[in-house]
Write a sequence for this structure.
């Protein structure tokens, strides 16, 4: 039996990353400790090259429809690659100072990124699962990477146990969907769901798949791991966790429910709407009492994923457009905030306490103003980037008739504004504490670029919005 | 007739040994019963005509996984009797949760059947066993249609290997490591020292 070779070129960026990761692994394994910095630099370069390859690449489907490259996939992949590259850049200085830097760290981040890209392009349940496992397995290891630190090991173990459970749920749901429809491909599932109508088996499958993915985007009620893992994992790893994997999982969620389960709209819409509502409310209220900035960012990310899910609950082209804009702004805000958090070092000791930011406006005004802009943006105050993300998802929800979801979302963003603005108050109005050690050059660059991007988002919204709109159109 | 006889034999032994896995006091016995359960499950696969899966089960599960379990159980000094101490205390709530799950499962299974067209629309239909043996059928699917999944699974295993090494390997100064080139480069001069021992004096 002769079989034509599938079109490998469509998966070019992924193959490039995989081959590059293997080369870097060899380079690190034979070069020893001395090459760790080189491996880290080359990893960041590799991720940027892959992003360019994604931008220049073709569109289409390959591997019998299991792997799809469309406008949506390319848009999100570029975002994820930027997020991972920023994480690699921000890792080295911190990890060297805390004495856990090893060449495997950037290589594992690259491999996790391959997993994320496969998740984004997955058009088949097996592809979804394998991409998710590739990403998660690398993330478990990275979370526990500071192995002499008990908290890091604990974070890795917690993440692993709960992650394995959620993967099991996802797999169970996938097997139910397969049993009901006879297909693992999204197109086949959608066709069977249209023909067969709604059934108990399909609903069960949707519930389990949604629960499994909700764990990965840390939507309530599957958010329990987030604060502990964010707090325990080494801070650069937390910065990585907060951005790229969330974006990839959200994109996968969008594709699974719209492409595979589009005909079962009624079934999943209530699940997504509930998760979105609960995440927004919990993110707003639970963060109020936090004194540790990493825990605060964890609750903040839960809340933000809730806002992004509002767009998914709408289930329309405008909703997907809102999600894409939201993810862009979320990436920029998270990277900028973590550039500051990673630089909170005083007398050679890292602090994670929010009160240690006291009086930053006098000790380091530039950082204070940029962080202030990012915090205003996280709270969703115009004219900064965060406002536009929220605006588009809420507009989509109102157009889809989900008035209550939009109202509760806006109310919880008002509550959430309290804890962001409290940090601004601590930075600008409290008595100054001792100054932090000077920021590293790459941190300054990341903070500067993301801060300006967030501040001037209204100016770039035109071309970016066109790209996001074109990307959103490909799913409908 | 003989098939049915063997089916009941294998099935009964599988279930009995599965019960023994969780009820025997000695963890080593548990693992040995687990191996027995695997071998009998392989027999069931063989009866169903899936000879590749049957042999895979023996090679992978019995040959590797169960033996690994056995080593871990024997090497780790875990007091399993102590682990079970709260068993009776938590039994009522455990049974209650178990019953709730059972009731839910019955409610689902009672109202829900597999879509009848599912087997007909399967995206990778099973070829006729008379034409293609099932080892060949799996290979054809795995290396052509599912090449993408196969390669990604390989990457997942690579990550598992990197992770295990980075999280556990420590280079300690006190550990003597084998240096093959140094061993090969030994000459007679570096390896042997001739001592001149005077008679009757010793060293």
């Amino acid at each position: 039996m002769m079989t034509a070779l599938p079109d490998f070129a469509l998966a070019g960026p992924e193959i490039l990353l995989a081959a590059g990761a293997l080369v870097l692994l060899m380079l690190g394994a034979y070069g020893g400790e001395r090459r760790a910095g080189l491996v880290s630099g080359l990893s960041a370069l590799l991720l940027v090259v892959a992003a360019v390859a994604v931008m220049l690449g073709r569109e289409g489907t390959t591997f019998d429809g299991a792997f799809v490259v469309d406008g949506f996939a390319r848009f999100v992949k570029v975002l994820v690659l930027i997020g991972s590259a920023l994480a690699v850049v921000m890792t080295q200085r911190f990890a060297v100072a805390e004495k856990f830097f090893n060449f495997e760290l950037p290589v594992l981040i690259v491999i996790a990124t391959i997993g994320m890209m496969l998740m984004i392009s997955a058009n088949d349940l097996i592809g979804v699962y394998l991409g998710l496992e590739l990403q998660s397995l690398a993330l478990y290891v990275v979370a526990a990477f500071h192995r002499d630190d008990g908290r890091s090991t604990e974070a890795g173990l917690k993440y692993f146990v709960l992650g394995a459970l959620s993967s099991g749920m996802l797999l169970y749901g996938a097997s139910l969907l397969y049993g009901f429809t006879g297909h693992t491909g999204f197109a086949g599932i959608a066709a069977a769901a249209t023909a067969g109508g709604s059934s108990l088996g399909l609903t069960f499958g949707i519930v389990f798949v949604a629960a499994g993915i909700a764990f990965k985007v840390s939507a309530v009620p599957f958010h329990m791991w987030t604060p502990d893992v964010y707090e325990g994992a080494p801070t650069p790893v937390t910065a990585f966790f907060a951005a790229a994997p969330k974006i990839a999982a959200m994109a996968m969620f969008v594709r699974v429910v719209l492409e595979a389960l589009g005909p079962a709209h009624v079934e999943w819409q209530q699940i997504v709407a509930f998760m979105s509502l609960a995440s927004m409310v919990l993110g707003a209220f639970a963060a109020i009492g936090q004194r540790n900035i990493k825990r605060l960012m964890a609750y903040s990310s839960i809340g933000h994923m809730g806002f992004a899910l509002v767009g998914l609950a709408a289930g329309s082209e405008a909703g997907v457009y809102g999600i894409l804009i939201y993810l862009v702004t979320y990436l920029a805000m998270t990277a900028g905030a973590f550039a500051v958090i990673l630089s909170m070092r005083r007398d050679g000791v890292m602090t994670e306490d929010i009160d240690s930011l006291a009086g930053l406006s006098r000790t380091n005004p530039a950082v204070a103003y940029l962080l202030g802009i990012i915090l205003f943006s996280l709270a969703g105050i115009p004219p900064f980037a965060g406002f536009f993300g929220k605006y588009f998802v809420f507009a989509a929800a109102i157009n889809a008739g989900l008035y209550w979801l939009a109202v509760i979302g806006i109310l919880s963003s008002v509550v959430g504004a309290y804890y962001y603005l409290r940090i601004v108050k601590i930075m600008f109005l409290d008595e100054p504490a001792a100054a932090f050690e000077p920021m590293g050059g790459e941190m300054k660059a990341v903070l500067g670029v993301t801060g300006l991007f967030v501040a001037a988002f209204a100016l770039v919204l035109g071309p970016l919005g066109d790209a996001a709109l074109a990307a959103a159109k490909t799913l409908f | 007739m003989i098939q049915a006889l063997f089916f009941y034999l294998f099935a009964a032994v599988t279930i009995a040994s599965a019960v023994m896995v969780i009820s025997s006091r000695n963890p080593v016995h548990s693992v040995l019963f687990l191996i027995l359960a695997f071998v009998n499950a392989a027999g069931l696969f063989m009866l169903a005509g899936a000879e590749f899966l049957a042999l895979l089960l023996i090679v992978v599960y019995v040959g590797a996984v169960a033996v690994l379990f056995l080593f871990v159980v024997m090497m780790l000094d875990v007091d399993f009797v102590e682990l079970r101490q709260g068993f009776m205390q938590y039994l009522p709530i455990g049974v209650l949760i178990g019953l709730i799950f059972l009731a839910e499962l019955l409610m689902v299974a009672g109202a829900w059947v597999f879509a009848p067209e599912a087997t007909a629309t399967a995206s990778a239909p099973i070829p006729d066993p008379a034409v293609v043996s099932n080892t060949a059928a799996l290979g054809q699917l795995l290396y052509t249609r599912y090449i993408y999944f196969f390669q990604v699974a390989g990457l997942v295993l690579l990550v598992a290997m990197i992770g295990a090494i980075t999280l556990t390997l420590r280079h300690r100064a006190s550990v003597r490591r084998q240096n093959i080139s140094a061993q090969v480069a030994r000459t007679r001069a570096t390896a042997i020292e001739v001592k001149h021992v005077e008679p009757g004096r010793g060293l």
Notes: Chain A has a mean pLDDT of 91. Chain A has 19 helices and four strands. Residues 9-473 of chain A form one domain. Chain A touches chain B at residues 1, 3, 6, 11, 18, 25, 63-64, 66-67, 102, 104, 107-108, 111, 114, 118, 126-127, 130-131, 133-134, 137-138, 140-141, 144-145, 147, 156, 179-185, 188, 192, 196, 199-201, 204 (CB under 8 Å).
